[in-house]
Amino acid sequence: MSLLHGKLQTELQTITAMVQIYCRAHHHSDEGLCQACQALLDYAETRLDRCPYGETKPACKHCPVHCYKAEPKEQVRQIMRYGGPRMLWQHPLLAIRHLLNERKPFPDKPPHNASNRAKRQKAP
User: How many domains are there within the chain?
Assistant: First the structure.
């Protein structure tokens, strides 16, 4: 069960679909994801949970806050470069949402305690 909801859950579904496409083609894993891809996906979920923008999250590509470390960031960049175009055939709605999200303007500064994690910790 994911800790994410709403827009963040959709973001996780999008990155999950791209990782699955990439892993199937490059790591020849027919039954789920290989360990490396699963670890990267778990890392991505953690980063989404802790995104300082929370539900108002902009596309990571244009975000002024760099959440990812250098190595996972490059891995995700490669995965998106490969999986992005293929998403149109396998997951057209997620692909179109992702493309539209990249064109939206984003807030200058994230609101204080807007992350999914901060909201979850405040809840009784």
Answer: 1
